[in-house]
Specification:
The protein is an alpha+beta fold and 435 residues long. It is built from 10 helices and 8 strands. The chain folds into 2 domains: 310 residues, Up-down Bundle (Outer membrane efflux proteins (OEP)), CATH 1.20.1600.10; 81 residues, Single Sheet (Outer membrane efflux proteins (OEP)), CATH 2.20.200. Helices cover 64% and strands 17% of the residues. A hairpin with a 5-residue loop joins strand 2 and strand 3. The chain is elongated. The two termini are 26 Å apart.
């Protein structure tokens, strides 16, 4: 269980674990799921109570004013007024003996509880994927901004150098204009990158419901995440079909509807109750206001449904159709889950290969930029060649950063889809982020 509160230090460097723990406490969707699970757990005691004795006591006390019209011995009209108090106390006990719907109600209540717990687990898994995805998007946005700013410094240097060369008579107006155009475009990209940084940090703050400070950075040399995804694709699909809270929630819904069918059919069967009652009354009739009555009874009450105009049959057909609909939804979910597992599994396994390829491409882009710069100084290449080489290098670095973050996000989503994200998993994933 998460701690009762999780306040983040806005001055500290926050790790993925810090953000996840804070979100586990403060995320409104998860808190709603917890409350829903607590409410659903009360369905079972309510269902069990229907099979236990029901004891009821009632009491009444009245002041009676009676006016009686009559005649006297001389046959003259006569009105007699009488005032008296009456009371009644009744204690009744009813114990259900035979109610065909009760076992289905109890089983249905258990399924309701299981569905609520599965929904809570699903929201917990989804929160882990959401926190990791938002955290990584914030890091990626910051990396993009840093890269754009580095490009801007390079372009400013180029513009200054070409302007000086033009003033000295060795440069051209075309080179100055080309470098200036690239710089203007870069400034527009910087504004877009700043907006992305602000947006992603706002999304992160919404998850934890409080301001966030600096974020720990991904260590590009840490390869421990690759060992987190063990086994083949079929193993992960089988694990997800067994453990996915999405599947478990829908299975619980199907269980409820199957019990609903049985409960509806029970409307055709009689009910039998054991009834015991003790009643004491005083002055409850005007004929003999002073009468006192004590009555005790014990017996069996049988209610037999004879005709309900097809209501029970309609309820049974409705519940059967709902169960069939949920059964088809469950099969569709299993197929879709297999597709999603396939996508995230490829995202992790092939993502690692893509990261390594882009790391090689980044080193090659550095070499290409250095060669283009030296060739321009020797008069072999033009400024456009240098700017294109620098732009290609920036694109490779952007792709590399995105590939690293997507690989981590896919690993978290894969674990969440399989329903196995826990404290240990989040710690292993969070270990690759260094303050």
């Amino acid at each position: 269980m998460p701690p009762p509160s999780a306040k983040l230090d806005p001055e500290a460097t926050l790790t993925l674990m810090d953000v996840w723990r804070a979100a586990m406490v403060n995320d409104r969707t998860l808190r709603a799921a917890r409350a829903g699970a607590q409410a659903a757990m009360e369905r079972a005691p309510q269902a069990r109570a229907q099979a236990l004795p029901q004891v009821q006591f009632s009491a009444s006390q009245f002041a009676n004013n009676v006016a009686r019209d009559g005649t006297n011995t001389l046959n003259q009209p006569l009105q007699i007024f009488d005032r008296y108090e009456s009371s009644n106390q009744t204690l009744s006990v009813r114990q259900p003996l035979i109610r065909a719907a009760l076992p289905h109600q109890l089983a249905q209540a258990r399924w309701v509880g299981e569905e609520a717990q599965a929904v809570l687990r699903r929201e917990t898994q989804n929160l882990a994927a959401k926190v990791a995805g938002t955290y990584l998007e914030a890091l990626l946005a910051q990396d993009q901004l840093t890269l754009v700013q580095a490009q801007q410094r390079f372009l400013r240097t180029v513009v200054a150098a070409e302007t000086r060369a033009l003033a000295a008579g060795s440069g051209t107006r075309t080179a100055v204009d080309e470098a200036t155009a690239r710089l203007d475009l870069n400034r527009a990209q910087e504004l877009e990158a700043r907006q992305a940084v602000d947006l992603t940090r706002r999304q992160l703050e919404v998850l934890v419901n409080q301001p966030v400070g600096r974020l720990a950075r991904l260590d590009p040399q840490d390869r421990s995440l690759e060992g987190l995804v063990q086994g083949g694709l079929d193993d992960w699909v089988a694990l997800a079909l067994r453990s996915s809270p999405e599947v478990q929630a829908l299975q619980a819904q199907l269980g409820q509807l199957r019990e609903e069918v049985g409960k509806a059919r029970a409307g055709h069967f009689p009910t039998v109750d054991l009834v015991a009652q003790a009643q004491r009354s005083r002055s409850e009739n005007v004929i003999n206001p002073q009468a006192r009555l004590t009555n005790q009874l014990v017996g069996v009450q049988v209610n037999v449904p004879l005709y309900n105009a097809g209501f029970v049959n309609s309820q049974t057909r409705q519940a059967s159709a709902e169960a069939e609909r949920t059964r088809e939804q469950l099969e569709a979910l299993r197929l879709d889950l297999g597709v999603r597992i396939h996508r995230e599994y490829r995202g992790v396994t092939e993502g690692a290969l893509r990261v390594r390829s882009l790391e090689v491409a980044a080193r090659s882009a550095d070499v290409a930029l250095d060669s283009a710069t030296k060739s321009m100084a020797a008069g072999v290449r033009s400024l456009v060649d240098v700017l294109n080489a620098e732009q290609q290098r920036a694109q490779v670095l952007r792709d590399l950063a995105q590939a690293r973050y997507l690989s981590v996000a896919s690993a978290v989503r894969l674990q969440a889809l399989a329903g196995v994200v826990d404290e240990e998993i989040m710690m292993r994933i969070g270990a690759i982020f260094k303050p």
